[in-house]
From TrEMBL:
<dbReference type="InterPro" id="IPR031158">
    <property type="entry name" value="GH10_AS"/>
</dbReference>
<keyword id="KW-0732">Signal</keyword>
<dbReference type="InterPro" id="IPR001000">
    <property type="entry name" value="GH10_dom"/>
</dbReference>
<dbReference type="Pfam" id="PF00331">
    <property type="entry name" value="Glyco_hydro_10"/>
</dbReference>
<keyword id="KW-0858">Xylan degradation</keyword>
<keyword id="KW-0326">Glycosidase</keyword>
<comment type="similarity">
    <text>Belongs to the glycosyl hydrolase 10 (cellulase F) family.</text>
</comment>
<dbReference type="InterPro" id="IPR017853">
    <property type="entry name" value="GH"/>
</dbReference>
<feature type="domain" description="GH10">
    <location>
        <begin position="39"/>
        <end position="363"/>
    </location>
</feature>
<protein>
    <recommendedName>
        <fullName>Beta-xylanase</fullName>
        <ecNumber>3.2.1.8</ecNumber>
    </recommendedName>
</protein>
<keyword id="KW-0119">Carbohydrate metabolism</keyword>
<dbReference type="InterPro" id="IPR044846">
    <property type="entry name" value="GH10"/>
</dbReference>
<keyword id="KW-0378">Hydrolase</keyword>
<keyword id="KW-0624">Polysaccharide degradation</keyword>
<feature type="signal peptide">
    <location>
        <begin position="1"/>
        <end position="21"/>
    </location>
</feature>
<dbReference type="GO" id="GO:0045493">
    <property type="term" value="P:xylan catabolic process"/>
</dbReference>
<dbReference type="GO" id="GO:0031176">
    <property type="term" value="F:endo-1,4-beta-xylanase activity"/>
</dbReference>
Amino acid sequence: MIMRKVLLYISFLMLATTACKKNTVEKPIVVEPPVVTPPTSTEKIKDVANFKFGAAVKSDLIKGESAYNNTFKGEFNQLSAEYEMKMNFIWTAENTYFFADCDYLVNYAQQNNMDVHGHTLLWYKSFPEWFKNANYDTVTFENKVKTFIQTVVGRYKGKIKSWDVANEIFNDNGSLRVESQIQGKFKDPIAFVGRCFKYANEADPAAKLFYNDYSVVLAAGKRRAMKEMAVRFKESGVPIHGLGDQFHYRISTNQTQISNGFADLVSTGLLIHISEIDIKVNTNNVSTYVLTDADKQKQAEVYKNIVKLYNAIPANQKFAITTWGITDKYTWLKESANGFKEYPLLFDESYAKKPAYFGFLAGLK
């Protein structure tokens, strides 16, 4: 009888427990989406890259706008001057040189542990009007240019570590620019350019000397002419150390074409400088253009792909990647586009890092 009561009691407990389980509302298992950690704002390109990260700057903006100044010295470790080192800015009259702004930039770079890349000694657009109007004969023309090069390079010997000796002498098809002063002045303009490299080297034997141009990786004819010039220079003892492609490209530029042309440029074995990069988003120059999230991401992807290409080249060919400006607030593309809106750089108009900045970072990893 006692055993029967015990069994009944146990059965009652089992039924009660089962009932409780059936009446309990179980919470569904919620799978949280993965947490996407935004790129850290403390990670800087200049600290991650194993090459110099530069920007083209204007001395008046460094002096006059604290956000510009702080962003530049905080984020970059190489300086190029947008205007202050060009011939027409420095060489104001036959025997007169204006060095104040150039001196300021060089001193600023030294104070902020930056290298300086000199841009540019010989460019058809920067010959001063007084020089063009002088109509010098060939010998006098060259002697004047030699004096200019050696005066400027010599002044900054050991302070400006590299120079674009010559800039944009070729058309996209590889022919020489007819509007260039040297085209009509010399029977062999390339030989004259080579002598300019020698003049710069004599003034500062330690400085790295570059030829710089635009659309190099896209324009096969121009690239071929540059490579032929580099071979000619090396065979004749002309001190050329590197080639620069400005990389003024677009979010729509064919990435395969960039990759193939870049590989061809790297095949020279010279130092490679991505010297003036910006990536245009308002590709049709629409006056009402609004920068969308989609275009921001496209721009970031282009920066990423280009940086990946550069980061993969041999270490002894890496020189620098230089952005042509710091912020979308100040870009030559706005100045030259009749007021059309453009946002080609890594920092927005408020100096915040754009997706393009983090695309650049991603390309380094």
